[in-house]
TrEMBL record:
BP terms from Gene Ontology: positive regulation of protein localization to plasma membrane; skeletal muscle contraction
Keywords from the UniProt entry: Cell membrane, Cytoplasm, Membrane, Metal-binding, Repeat, SH3 domain, Zinc, Zinc-finger
Organism: Elysia chlorotica
Name of the protein this chain belongs to: SH3 domain-containing protein
Pfam families: SH3_20, SH3_9
Length: 226
């Protein structure tokens, strides 16, 4: 026959006492040390950074996004200031109208002697450089040479190309045209023009062109540059 437990030692009473003791332990237990709390916080931070790295969330320090926004804004403002300065400089720079541009004048060389008979005529000598100012009349042009100006026969001039050399013949001679199909006679004091690039210093012949558009190779010793 089983002996019954006393009321003070029954299992039900023991469970109540144990639960009461556990509650008293939890209420009376001291706070965990700060070192343990610090370790827990560091563990949480490491776990959060590891989670962010694994799942694609970059561990960006606080204030980086704000600095990036400020930097982008400063770049945009700088570019706008540069554009404004360019526009102001363009608007303030003087614009030259087409009428104010100087028209390039043609330079001619006189081929023959000319002594004027009228007061408004201008004398010419072979080799003079003349700037034509009025060529409306087909026979008589007006121009200037140095400080002088006046009228002269239009056929006495030959237009010069830029940097073209001018020679004066020192001896009368007969030459063969450059194409070999005819002859070319040059007279003393006649003006001819150099063709092509300037000849070398040691050149013995020079390619020349006369007023009648005939071309020939002339001995350099019979030419004098003017």
């Amino acid at each position: 026959m089983a002996v019954p437990f006393p009321a003070s030692h029954s299992p039900k009473t023991r469970r109540k006492r144990l639960s009461a003791r556990m509650k008293s332990f939890s209420l009376d237990a001291p706070d965990p040390p700060k070192q343990l709390l610090g370790i827990d916080e560091m563990t949480k931070k490491k776990s959060s950074s590891f989670t962010n790295t694994c799942f694609g969330q970059p561990n960006i320090p606080v204030g980086v996004n704000a600095n990036k926004k400020k930097f982008v804004f400063s770049l945009r403002s700088t570019s706008l200031e540069i554009e404004d300065s360019k526009r102001r400089s363009r608007s303030q720079s003087p614009q030259i109208s087409p009428r104010s541009k100087k028209k390039e004048t043609d330079i001619f060389v006189s081929l023959y002697h000319f002594r004027g008979k009228e007061k408004d005529d201008m004398d010419l000598r072979p080799g003079y450089r003349v700037t034509v100012t009025n060529s409306s009349d087909p026979d008589w042009w007006k121009g200037k040479c140095g400080s002088r100006s006046g009228y002269f026969p239009a056929k006495y001039l030959l237009k010069l190309a830029k940097y073209q050399r001018v020679y004066q013949v020192t001896h009368t001679m007969n030459l063969t045209e450059i194409d070999g199909h005819g002859g070319m006679r040059l007279h003393k004091d006649q003006i001819v023009l150099g063709v092509g690039d300037p000849p070398e210093e040691e050149a013995t012949v020079i390619h020349v062109k006369a007023a009648n558009n005939k071309e020939a190779m002339c001995p350099a010793q019979f030419l004098s540059e003017v």
